[in-house]
Backbone:
């Protein structure tokens, strides 16, 4: 009975861990590695295990850094069930196909630039992505199910995106009984739309994310004040506002925020573009799960019969519609993926607006090292987009209060729900962040915390 760490150990993206019990083995997540070109090249490497020998996958949520290598896993021989929440099952159909489409377009673009070299193949095809859907098995929150002999799981609400889960795992081998909890990605407390992360009271070991260890977000009211000021400044400066946003979670919350401040921020003066086919489809999934909303969002939905209330919202699905946006030089709020600016339509909009000092870029989520979004946050004066060097003269704003991830205080608050203070292994965080949370948990929560190393194996019978 053991746990081995693979992806997102010592880094944020590429979540993937393996549990072995009773001669069977299953994965916790199978996510894409994201970052610069060298980091993303690691996705093409063989898995550090034989996919044909994996009996099942437990998927915490739909974000690509948790689900994005599932098509590769199936392509390379995996043939078992993938257990997840019902909403995640629906979202995976959107995200994985979009991921395949992006990989195909990137390969085509790269091949045009190197016609005399062997062609680059996409990481996986749209058909590979669709194959994954055959293996997905949806479940509800708080429903205990047996997935393998001696292995039961139960999904709890993680409050990160719709359908996101923390996973309780009960393991049984002979006379040995152990309970493991995998936090998945934890959301902030008191955020719009979604419930707070669920309280879990007991575990023998906790596998916990640490994305924002050592950092705290601004109070939400101050975040809204800051966005209101950006909207006002951009209006007076006659510029555009660009918001790189993950298609699932951030796009919906940004729209919700603009809708709830429609009058206060004089949103009627603007044209708001949701320029992401994936985000448009994902918003429909959000709409299909109203029972997962918090009380405030439930009331808002009941009163408006739509979400959000933005009379000037333009949903631009086609490439042609997206290209027309580039003609908008003033009065446009453009929400587009990808959230880290490492692909998708946001790069085209940045190419047209970054050099304009009257424009604003609002960063609303975590930016992985090596991504274009991280370089903008770090204040680089010149960036390369689609082979073109662009001087950064637009104003770059980091608005952490809208992050889908809980900050250090939220993470510690979630852990305090455990009555027995179990030992913790920290994953899904840069080393500095994980080390900071390690100290915080040991000093303030009274538990033994350890930053996980990739390839490390934990004997679960000895915890």
Residues:
């Amino acid at each position: 009975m053991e746990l081995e760490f693979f992806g997102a150990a010592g880094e944020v993206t590429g979540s993937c861990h393996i549990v072995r019990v009773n001669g069977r083995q299953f994965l916790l997540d199978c996510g894409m590695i994201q970052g610069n070109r060298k980091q993303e090249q690691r996705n093409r490497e063989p898995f550090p295990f034989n996919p044909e020998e994996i009996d099942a996958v437990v998927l915490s949520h739909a974000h690509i850094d948790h689900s994005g290598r599932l098509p590769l896993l199936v392509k390379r021989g995996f043939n078992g069930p993938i257990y997840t929440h019902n909403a995640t099952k629906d979202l995976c159909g959107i995200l994985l196909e979009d991921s395949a489409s992006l990989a195909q377009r990137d390969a085509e673009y790269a091949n045009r630039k190197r016609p005399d070299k062997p062609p680059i193949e996409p990481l996986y095809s749209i058909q590979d992505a669709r194959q994954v859907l055959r293996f997905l098995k949806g479940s509800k929150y708080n429903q205990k199910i047996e997935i393998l002999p001696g292995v039961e799981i139960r999904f709890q609400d993680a409050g990160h995106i719709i359908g996101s889960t923390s996973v309780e795992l009960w393991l049984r081998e002979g006379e040995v009984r152990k309970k493991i909890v995998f936090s998945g990605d934890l959301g902030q407390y008191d955020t719009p739309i979604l419930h707070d992360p669920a309280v879990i009271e007991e575990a023998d070991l906790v596998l916990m994310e640490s994305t924002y260890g050592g950092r705290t977000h601004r109070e939400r009211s101050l975040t809204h004040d800051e966005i209101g000021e950006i909207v006002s400044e951009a209006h007076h400066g006659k510029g555009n506002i660009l918001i790189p946003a993950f298609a699932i979670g951030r796009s919906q919350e940004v729209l919700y925020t603009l809708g709830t401040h429609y009058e206060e921020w004089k949103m009627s003066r603007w044209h708001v573009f949701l320029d992401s086919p994936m985000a448009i489809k994902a918003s429909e999934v959000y709409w299909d799960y109203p029972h997962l909303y918090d009380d405030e969002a439930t009331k808002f939905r009941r009163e408006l019969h739509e979400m959000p209330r933005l009379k000037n919202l333009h949903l631009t699905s086609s490439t042609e519609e997206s290209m027309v946006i580039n003609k908008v030089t003033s009065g446009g709020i453009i929400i587009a993926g990808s959230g880290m600016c490492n692909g998708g339509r946001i790069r085209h909009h940045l190419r047209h607006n970054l050099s304009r000092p009257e424009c604003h870029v609002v960063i609303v989520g975590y930016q992985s090292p090596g991504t274009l979004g991280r370089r903008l946050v770090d204040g680089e004066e010149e960036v390369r987009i689609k082979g073109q060097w662009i001087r950064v003269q637009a104003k770059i704003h980091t608005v952490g209060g809208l992050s889908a991830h809980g900050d250090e205080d939220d993470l510690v608050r979630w852990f305090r729900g455990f009555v027995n203070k179990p030992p913790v292994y920290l994953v899904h965080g840069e080393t500095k962040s994980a080390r900071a949370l390690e100290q915080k948990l040991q000093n303030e929560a009274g538990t033994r915390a350890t930053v996980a190393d990739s390839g490390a194996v934990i004997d679960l019978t000895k915890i």
User: Anything to note?
Assistant: The longest strand covers residues 165-173.
